[in-house]
Amino acid sequence: MKQISYQLKDIAQVADWLLKNTTDRIWLFDGEMGSGKTTLIKEIVKQLGAADQANSPTFSIVNEYQGQQHMIYHFDLYRLKDYYEALDFGIEEYLDHPDAYVFIEWPDIIEEILPDHSQKIRIIVKDNNTRELQIL
Length: 136
Fold this sequence. Notes:
Elements: E1 2-7, H1 11-21, E2 26-30, H2 37-47, E3 62-66, E4 71-76, H3 83-88, H4 91-95, E5 100-105, E6 118-125, E7 130-135
Parallel strand pairs: 2-5, 2-6, 4-5
Antiparallel strand pairs: 1-7, 3-4, 6-7
């Protein structure tokens, strides 16, 4: 396990650190509501060269971005009732995409169908401005 502690103002450095310290392209973000999962993903999408600014896909379930070299899919599965809903909108096609980054918030609901080559990333709130990030 790799981990770092950081201040929210240092989110760009954390995104860069993550991109350099992970090899898988499916990232599963775990952390309580308000821990900064979406904020971190927005910065990662930016660093991957997407022209559009990333937004939370809470209501759309998935947002798609074209990065400099890869497609980027950002999922927020908070509102799903079960993994069958994810199957209904074709999440397996996204997970099987060989050359894309896939970022998933609230991934536990689809745990049964996640590929082995997924990277779990946990964000722990230490205080209002400090987080601990763990690559599990």
